[in-house]
Amino acid sequence: MLESPARPDSLALAQMRDGIKILTINNPPVNALSFATSGALLAEIEAAETDEAVIAVVITGANGIFSGGADIGDFMKPPVAGSKSVRDVVAAIERSKKTYVAAIDGNALGGGLETALTCDYRIATPNAKVGLPEILLGIIPGAGGTQRLPRLLATKNPMNNGLAGVQMALDMMLKGEAKAAKPAKGMGILDEIVEEGSVVDRAVALAREKAGTKLRVSQLKFVVVPPLTAMAHGMVPSEEKGGYAAHKLIDALEAASELDYKYGIAREARLFEELVVGPQAQSAIHLFFAERELGKIPGLSATTTPKEIKSAAVVGAGTMGTGIAMVFANAGIPCHVIDVNPEQVARGKKNVADTYEGRVKKGKMAPDKAKALVESVTFVSDYAAIADCDVVVEAVFESMAVKKEVFAALDKALKRDAILATNTSTLDIDEIANSTTRPENVIGLHFFAPANVMQLLEVVRGSKTSDATIVTSMALSKKLKKKGVLSGNAFGFIGNRMLFDYIREATFLLEEGATPSQVDKAIRDFGFPMGPFAMSDLSGIDVFYKISQEAPKNDYRSSEIAIRLYEKGRYGQKTGSGFFKYVEGERKPVRDEEAEAVIVDESKRLGITRRTDITDEEIVNRCMYALINQGAQLLGDGIALRPGDEDIAWIYGYGFPWFQGGPMWMADTIGPKKIYDQIMQWQATLGKHWQPAPHLKDVAEKNGTFAPRPKIGSN
Ligand code: 3H9
Q1: Does some domain include residue 344?
Q2: From the CA of 120, how far away is ligand 1's center (Å)?
Q3: Tally of domains in the chain
Q4: Which atom belonging to ligand 1 lies closest to the Cα atom of 143?
Q5: CB 64 within 8 A of CB 106
Q6: What is the mean pLDDT of the chain?
Q7: Are residues 392 and 525 in the same domain?
Q8: What is the pLDDT of residue 352?
Q9: What is the structure's pLDDT at 169?
């Protein structure tokens, strides 16, 4: 029975039922615990404490989600004096004399789970997911999570003095992974799963039954675990390579074992405040929002909604084609692969079967699921078989003539409203589109190899691509679990266009005196998983050679080192040698005197006296500023929508270290003015290819940044 009406004016709606106060966090879309929502929740908790009519309290969330945690946007604003945070909310629950039950539906993440962990009981729907994903934002749980979760799990999993439970807590926080209701109950995070009926009704009943009992996690006894934390420090990346928050998380966990609860909480708060204003957290928070901006395309008709994609086809059963087909299959979209070459089809079938079998062998997939996925990729040889597909992705040989033939066939065969996509990495989308009778349905969907692993998907719009095709393709990229970055139609689009300038500068460094190992090491030390030359060897020097032949000509010189290697048949890993050499069956690049002799000959041919004073700093700055300058060019030309889109492209497509925030975020950190001044200096000393992009010049002259740069604070 409702004793008082809901308060529509409040972010934390409060109702009374049979002496139980129900507090519903209501801050769409994810019930983030912003300063305002936390303040409203806190006021209701404090009111409940003094209200004798309240015998217990239930906390829940509106609209099928408990809470997505503290409002991440608040971390990007200067601190507001007197504002209340989720930390104040949990402190009030902790102090309370009343019994608290958390009723969880949907996600309870970060501060959301920390609020639930402070309650005496946690019950949930089968749909619930609980997690402490703060590490993915470069921070640690800051409202008691690092102190309560290990205590709770050590008590619920008492083997080895609770060590198993502490290990689970550490693992969960280090991965930032959310646990589904069932495993969360198995671990002891949840007390009950409510299979039928309303979770709030059950919570109210439980609150009445348990009113007066207190099971605060803070009171639980805890084990001492220094050997675990010492070992954990050795298993996470170093502080400067993105592991800053991980080490602080382990420190906080250590405090949970060594210190009294209240001191542990204080240490956690101090570490959190230190982290949230630090450069790694700033980068990660920037990327969180940049990723969510991707689908927001200015200028499109607001009434255009994405069409549902129920079936797909891929043209070409090569490695790329079958990889793309598996991406569709993984997203629950059955996919035909069309190819007329029986040997290619046999290889494609084997690739699909081997991939899923590999997952089963590693224990990552159930055999029946793997079987169903293999069966959802079907190989056909006739275009008639794909006539009804909603989308088709062409993944054939990178040649305009071949692609035009394929698109002519698709145009004839496919239903009128199907999307016709090309996986080209460089060719002109408009030329391909104009070879069909429906250019408005043609778009680029540029997957990165291996397609079923790499997360970047460039969505390339041509001049006639319709809003509906763009909106549907962006929604599709989300469904395929890819980071869909919209690009304009320019040679190399966003990612590869920036790549060409990066590789060009790296190769100039070779002409001037550096070796491939020296350049690659400097770039790896900066944070990339591999340097530009190991990457060239992996992708194939022959591939780069062919692209360079088709690239639009400009006034700037390019190094010919890759051409000399190509002429010698040194295509990279596939031929056992390129910029490096490779032991048969191994992928590790080994320094190669022959390749270095080719480089030295090139320096001689060009009359360059090789320098011995090239430092890692020079290597990194020249390679990164080349990326940034081209990034600025693409922004100015309207090919890339936002600097954050370029950051996402480079992080998910090329291994740019996330903790540097992406090339354009890095540019804003350094200051575009400083970069511009350096480029002008290089133009005088290194050559006219160091031509600053007009947009970089503009931003530098205003002493501005590419993206608005908020002052980060914490709540
Ligand atoms: C924390 O809790 C710290 C505490 O330990 C200590 C504090 C002292 N805040 O992802 P979606 C927005 S740190 C603000 O597309 P989905 C998002 O920007 C926090 N905004 O939906 C987007 O806005 P828009 C720890 C947030 O259904 C909209 O919601 N929590 C937040 O695919 C929809 O988002 C996390 O790290 C937030 N916390 O996924 C959880 N969360 O529509 C981060 C979302 O304007 N969030 N937004 O673009 C997530 O993992 C996913 O968003 C979630 C929903 C799974 C919740």
Answers
A1: yes
A2: 25
A3: 3
A4: 6
A5: yes
A6: 93
A7: no
A8: 96
A9: 95
Q: What is the Å distance from ligand 1's center to 100 Cα?
A: 25
**CATH number of residue 429's parent domain:** 3.40.50.720
Give nearest CA residue, ligand 1 atom 45.
292
293 in any annotated domain? no
Place of tokens 């550490």: 170
Cβ partners under 8 Å of residue 638, min gap 6: 488
* Protein residue with least CA distance to atom 33, ligand 1: 29
The CA 66 to ligand 1 mean position distance, Å, reads 12
Q: Which residues line ligand 1 (CB under 6 A)?
A: 29-30, 32, 68-73, 85-87, 107, 109-111, 114, 133-134, 137, 141-143, 145, 292, 715
Is residue 650 located within the same domain as residue 532? yes
Q: Are residues 620 and 680 in the same domain?
A: yes
In this predicted structure, what is the pLDDT of residue 551?
75
pLDDT of residue 259: 85
CATH of the domain at 64: 3.90.226.10
Asked whether residue 713 is assigned to any structural domain, the reply reads no
Q: Are 58 and 203 in contact (CB under 8 A)?
A: yes
Token code pair at residue 359: 């997952």
> pTM above the 0.90 mark?
yes
| Pocket probe mutation, ligand 1, options 11, 25, 27, 30, max atoms within 8 Å of Cβ | 30
Beta-carbon contacts of residue 461 (< 8 Å; ≥ 6 apart): 429, 443, 444, 469, 470, 486, 487, 488, 489
Per the domain annotation, does 555 fall within a domain? yes
What tens digit of pLDDT does each residue of 331-376 get? 999 999 999 999 999 999 999 999 999 999 999 999 999 999 999 9
Residue type, 199: V
Do both 464 and 517 map to the same domain? no
Q: Which pair of tokens denotes residue 632?
A: 């600025």
Q: Provide the residue range defining the domain that includes 418.
A: 312-489
Pocket test for ligand 1, best of 72, 172, 285, 477 (most atoms within 8 A of CB): 72
Q: Which amino acid makes up residue 480?
A: L
Residue ranges for the chain with pLDDT beneath 70 = 1-10, 222-227, 710-715
The tens digit of pLDDT for each residue in 426-453 reads 899 999 999 999 999 999 999 998 898 9
